[in-house]
Design brief:
15 helices; 345 residues; globular; 2 strands; mainly alpha; 2 domains
Length: 345
């Protein structure tokens, strides 16, 4: 049985933003990715196999004021209140205006829920851009609400200057915290709090130059981190987010002011740099070291769907999306690898 994206969202919106194990609920993101990959018939079976991980939907209890929202920022216990807040915002203004108004507030905490606030928002925006429905509007409220409730900042704020580097150059100047004996197990959110003890990381946000072609900047950021994902033997899920998060930001930038888009792109780099600093045990590979895989794009999609993992599906879709704009073999190699090393996660 094939369901529409709105029917899939009706099912998922009866559940909470987190799973029983405390990880993010990937249901809405995977459903939208499967539609984008041209696999609508896989959505309902995937949800059926995932449903034992769902939690009940939490209920709002204390309304958030448009004038006093700062006190609730980063309070995971107010997640349902944040969703209700954005439902009200979206009932009162076009979704494009709500997005443009709130992304600048949320961008400094882009690491929220290991970047899942941004990623869920990005999938919601792409779905809304294809057609506005009540379910898709509410999904945007869910994404923005999750981002606000899980808001997490990393050390360092933009100084107003930069070192003039591209992402590929800048990552060479980010110090790695751990060596090859690092155990990456544990929640990404908790792991990256360890960067608070490494204040030298605070300068990383100023390493990149976002003044040029912003689409090209995002391409180089995702290309660089697809290679870093391939080069590392562990921490794979963290590196997946260093591709899917900036690729999700790409989906938002058409609706932001130019200045806000560039500032958000700087925070996207900071999130990726934080993942590299904490999780990478190898230096970044040379772009020239990658050769195209033999598999066709449809085969890569089939492999991801067969593996069934939420991260594998989302990562494959993001890699193919980025490949369409920047046809570098590293994206295809990363997608192929994810079906094997990330698999059902």
């Amino acid at each position: 049985m094939t369901v529409t994206i709105d029917e899939a969202l009706d099912i998922i919106h009866r559940t909470g933003p987190d799973l029983v194990n405390g990880n993010s609920n990937h249901g809405p993101m995977v459903a939208e990715a499967l539609y984008t990959l041209g696999r609508p018939g896989s959505v309902l079976p995937w949800i059926e196999g995932y449903k034992n991980r769902f939690q009940d939907r939490p209920q709002p209890h204390t309304p958030i004021s448009p004038r006093g929202w700062q006190e609730a920022l980063g309070d995971r216990g107010r997640g349902a209140d944040w969703v209700a807040f954005f439902d009200r915002q979206l009932a009162e203004a076009p979704w494009q205006a709500v997005l443009q108004g709130w992304v600048p507030h949320l961008a400094p905490g882009l690491m929220a829920a290991a970047t899942h606030g941004l990623i869920r928002t990005g999938h919601a925006v792409r779905s809304l851009a294809a057609g506005e429905t009540p379910q898709r509007l509410h999904e945007l409220a869910e994404g923005l609400g999750y981002w606000a409730a899980c808001y997490q900042v990393l050390p360092g704020q933009p100084s107003g200057g930069h070192s003039g580097h591209s992402p590929r150059e800048a990552v060479q100047s980010v110090g790695r915290v751990h060596s090859g004996d690092f155990d990456p197990r544990g929640a990404i959110v908790q792991q990256l709090k360890g960067l608070d003890e490494h204040r030298e990381f605070a300068t990383a946000i100023d390493l990149v130059d976002t003044a040029g072609d912003l689409s090209r900047y995002v391409s180089e950021l995702t290309e660089t981190f697809a290679g870093i994902y391939l080069a590392n033997p562990t921490g794979l899920i963290a590196f997946v987010h260093a591709v899917t998060a900036p690729s999700a930001l790409r989906l938002l930038t058409p609706y932001l002011t130019d200045a806000d888009a560039r500032l958000a792109a700087r925070y996207a780099w900071q999130a990726c740099a934080g993942i590299y600093a904490w999780y990478s045990t190898t230096p970044p590979p040379s772009p020239s070291s990658f050769t195209p895989p033999a598999e066709a794009l449809e085969t890569l999609i089939d492999r991801a769907v067969a593996a069934g993992g939420a991260h594998t599906i989302k990562f494959t879709e993001a890699c193919l999306r980025e490949y369409a704009l920047n046809p570098q073999p590293v994206y295809l190699l990363a997608a192929r690898d994810a079906a094997e090393r990330v698999g059902r996660v």
